[in-house]
Amino acid sequence: xxxxxxxxxxxxxxxxxxxxxxxxxxxxxxxxxxxxxxxxxxxxxxxxxxxxxxxxxxxxxxxxxxxxxxxxxxxxxxxxxxxxxxxxxxxxxxxxxxxxxxxxxxxxxxxxxxxxxxxxxxxxxxxxxxxxxxxxxxxxxxxxxxxxxxxxxxxxxxxxxxxxxxxxxxxxxxxxxxxxxxxxxxxxxxxxxxxxxxxxxxxxxxxxxxxxxxxxxxxxxxxxxxxx
Length: 228
Hints:
By secondary structure, the protein is α/β, with parallel strands linked by helices. It has 11 helices and 6 strands. It has helices at residues 16-29, 42-52, 65-76, 99-114, 116-119, 125-134, 142-150, 157-161, 180-189, 200-205, 208-227; strands spanning 6-9, 34-35, 58-63, 81-87, 167-172, 193-198.
């Protein structure tokens, strides 16, 4: 039986280019084909998953807000989902002052008041490189996309507890924006979840390190499912 198609979504104000850098090779090595929609924002992400459904259960997932959307879609459409890859979940339920939400709001304010380059002043290294590439692709929609993400909902612990499919969760232990404690909370709530960790330094040197962590966690969760 061939693996299901994998549809992976980007995080807040990120894009499908980053998703492909993170997941394309790890998925291919595991036998999956990657679909990385060029969707922008929460509503477009849900629409992309709906459009990807063609009668065969999907492996869905994403990074940060993309992971939130994919997990919620799986909760709402259990018969359409074979599993979830959740990289860097940022909160559960409502954002309620989560670091990622506050950062997105501050970024939206800065973009509106001073423009993209000024908003990214001081953001260096690989993250600065990724944002300077991705943010201009949003054009005038950037601030609105940041605000939409900050106000969006992730699955609650109760919803995660009702998600029967295997879920692989990946987190960076040194990431203050996506705290590893949130990833642990997700896994603790999931009936069939597993966690693998990496670091921001490793992600900076090798984008695929995050994808490999998510796939390793998913393989563990899937193995537990098969033994159950």
